[in-house]
Amino acid sequence: MFSAIQLDPSPDAGNLYVQSLSDSGTATGFRSRGDLIGQVGWARALMWSEQGRVSFAAQRPDTVRAQITKTDSSGLGVGWFKTISDDWVRPAMWSDTEIHELPFNGIGGGANATNGTIVLGELFEPEFRNNQLVAWDISGSTIPMPQIVSGVPASGSVLPYGVNSAGAFVGQWYDNSDPTFETLRSYVGQGLQARDWRPLGQEPVRANDINDTGQVAGEWLLPDRRLAFVADSFDSPPRMLDLLPGFYTNYLEAINNEGWAVGQQDDQFGTVGRAVLFAPGSSEPIDINSLVNLPGVNLFAAWDINNRGQILVNGTRTGPNDSGWYVLTPIPEPAGAVVVGALWLSRAARRRRGVDGGVEV
Asked: Which uninterrupted H or E stretch holds 48?
């Protein structure tokens, strides 16, 4: 079971996006109005304390747009910002009280993943057809210019989505030979070397997160839906994850170091969603709504899970059309209940191994 803290809404109007959850229980995100990709509207980077209190992230006085897109285990945020005089956005990092601009080549770019030693991001080109995956070394007192990561074709988007403590990373890129920019590919890598990743052969997949043991959380992209999977390594066959009864699409957003994974499932019409949790080694989904007491609230999406087992979720009230964000914290159970739960999960995992044709989980 979990207790819940609702995150304070931003004092500004606009759409609220809470992106990531650190191991300390602090969260980061942004409030935005207008086009998130183009240069229309505004955005303000936000941080939430472990108690759910919101505060504006540090920014330059001339900033008009700022977004924190990812947070590492210590709470260091990465993302991008744009000033009044800039034509394009710039990559940046945020600590509790400061913004640190990242040096870059080209006309702009953003930072999208960090492990506290390196930052991964992309550099923009004028036509948005030759963006490059890059890495900044932030281990020293001075941050050098970014280095290009080889193995990922220059493309319209080369977004990194996760990097673990050893520097192994996952991400997605769009094939710029497709004029519609709809041909999605995934890549994996370590250090300054990446490679195309197709664990299901030629079938397209999304790689969304990687933990410190090398497990990858991802999705198989079918023409009409997505199905979630966990791969135990870059070279392991994916273990497909099951759906709740009556649900059709399975998204997987994050996986922690113990192998707990979270995401979202929707019905066939996209009108009903449920936030779901998967235990380590298990393919059986758990409706997170059944694990927390939030009367009148439907938790429809889980976006992150930290190494303490805390979960970042989004929910709506059944009465007023009111969306809210919550951090769920596991409630310690008596020792006997923990033992019984562990035995149940172990037996469930063994049953799934038999059903799935001997795939190791």
From this structure: strand 42-48
